[in-house]
Design goal:
The chain starts with 6 loop residues before the first strand and ends in an 18-residue tail after the last helix. Strand 3, helix 4 and strand 4 form a beta-alpha-beta unit. The protein contains 15 helices and 12 strands. The longest helix is centred in the middle third of the chain and has 19 residues. It is globular, with a radius of gyration of 23 Å. It has an 8-stranded parallel β-barrel with strand order 1-2-3-4-7-8-9-12, surrounded by 5 helices. It has a two-stranded antiparallel sheet with strand order 5-6. The protein has a two-stranded parallel sheet with strand order 10-11. The chain is 37% helix and 11% strand.
């Protein structure tokens, strides 16, 4: 790519994710949008028309009656993204898949199938599952502790990438005249035996157009940041200020460099909330009305998720915040610790914690199209991020961004005019991983060349 440009992701959340309690009431959104494949396809087409780099499908596998509406009934990511793939040509297809409740061979095969179906547009958001209740859906008594979750995640990704190198690029001559379908010297078993997995291989899929799906990661704990610095090519995150965003991006790039990686191959894409209207004043009023649609009772119940879906409705709202930090140990520990620290540092009651967290839902990306474009450009050029993830619910709200903000950013050269590749990796400006066996073969014939790690090239072990 000739210059650094802002990357664009669309998060398809149907009838509404966390805090979006009234989203499903919008008549523009089908009440069953989260399970309507045509809704997703239409939204993906709109994002592709606007030259977005990717659509992102969030996922988890444990719910309660208090889960966000979109979480209560939604489609499985690989199935959904495969359907979107055949109705689009350029946009990347990224889904969340857990390393705690998948086997590497099975998940590597499903993701690589998506990569082939889409012509090289697949991406994997690597998660370890924060919802501890997921264990009960997989015949387990309890969720893994943090050390196990992240040790397993690192090895899981390394095994998957090893399986994606099962075939070198020219492994299938398919020469009818010679009667040669496969060159067996270009097929490679993995024969991996590690701390958490034992996988023989090879994977029964040839090399894809982008070689390997792009690795995304979103963990914010110390272990999560270390995993992201080791294996991720794109980091999903959140930030309330430019200073916070810049600090996070700098830290992750520094961690990646310390592991021997080129920090320019690690992109940061925070999720942002957009509120756009004709004027700044109208946009602020619009945000106020949107926040007013949030239910205190629903927010109180959703507060339980980081604490293993603990029931906070049992407490006196005006009593001191309860001593429940330990409940986050096998759930969303970092988030749970941040909430309990907030309460302790400020002497907040339970009611005040809920109200404070709701107030923090205000976005810095509120205003007229020019104001929003100015803010995005300032954060981008100020080192806050490499791209943004925009939540998509109502089509008309998404159109305010694509039709009124993006043209301003394009005119300023912040966003590219056209796709530059047919693959997700190419459009994100990320390098194509060389097949480790091809690299080893080349190194063997080149004096003084370093021999690639046969287990995890370009990855840094714990």
């Amino acid at each position: 790519m000739s210059r650094r440009t802002l990357k664009l992701g669309a998060v398809l959340l149907g009838v509404g994710g966390p805090g979006q309690h009234a989203t499903w009431l919008d008549p523009e959104i089908p009440a069953n949008a989260s399970v309507d494949v045509n809704w997703y396809i239409d939204r993906a087409k709109a994002a592709e028309a606007a030259k977005f780099d990717l659509v992102f499908i969030v996922d988890s596998q444990f719910i309660t009656e208090n889960s966000p509406n979109h979480y209560l009934s939604r489609l499985e990511p690989v199935t959904l993204l495969s359907a979107i793939a055949v109705h689009t040509r350029h946009i990347g297809l990224v889904g969340t898949f857990t390393t705690s409740y998948n086997e590497p061979f099975n998940l590597a095969r499903r993701l690589y199938s998506l990569d082939h179906i889409s012509g090289g547009r697949a991406g994997w958001n690597v998660v370890t599952s924060g919802d501890a209740g997921t264990a009960g859906n997989y015949s387990r008594d309890e969720h893994f502790d943090y050390a196990t979750r992240y040790g397993r995640a690192l090895e899981h990704v390394q095994v998957a990438q090893g399986l994606w190198d099962s075939y070198e690029a020219d492994a299938f001559p398919r020469d009818r005249a010679a009667g040669t379908f496969l060159d067996p010297t270009k097929q490679h078993a993995l024969n991996h035996k590690g701390e958490y997995f034992s996988v023989v291989g090879p994977l029964n899929l040839e090399r894809s157009p982008q070689a390997q799906p792009v690795i995304f990661q979103a963990g914010d704990s110390e272990e999560g940041r270390d995993l992201g610095a080791a294996v991720a090519e794109v980091i999903f995150t959140h930030a309330r200020t430019l200073e916070q965003a810049r600090a996070f991006r700098t830290e992750l790039r520094d961690r990646a460099a310390a592991k021997g990686r080129d920090p320019d191959t690690l992109l940061t894409l925070p999720g942002i909330s957009l509120v756009i209207a004709d004027t700044d004043e109208e946009a602020l009023a619009k945000e106020e009305a949107r926040l007013g649609g949030r239910s205190f009772d629903r927010a109180l119940k959703e507060l339980g998720r980081p604490f293993g879906w603990h029931d906070f409705t049992r407490y006196d709202l005006d009593a001191p915040f309860p001593d429940v930090a330990h409940l986050g140990e096998r759930s969303f520990r970092t988030q749970a610790n941040a909430i309990t620290k907030l309460a302790a540092d400020n002497g907040f009651s339970l009611r005040q914690v809920v109200e404070h967290l709701s107030a923090q839902a205000r976005s810095p990306f509120v205003g007229s199209p020019t104001t929003v474009a100015d803010t995005i450009q300032r954060w981008f050029e100020g080192g806050g991020f490499d791209g943004i993830n925009v939540t998509v619910n109502a089509p008309s709200e998404f159109a305010l961004f694509t039709d009124r903000v993006l043209p301003i950013l394009r005119e300023r050269g912040v966003v590219r005019d056209e796709y530059e590749s047919t693959t997700l990796r190419g459009n994100l400006g990320l390098p194509v991983p060389e097949n480790r066996h091809t690299a080893a073969r080349t190194a063997a014939t080149t004096p003084d060349s370093p021999t690639p790690d046969p287990i995890s090239p370009a990855l840094i072990a714990r």
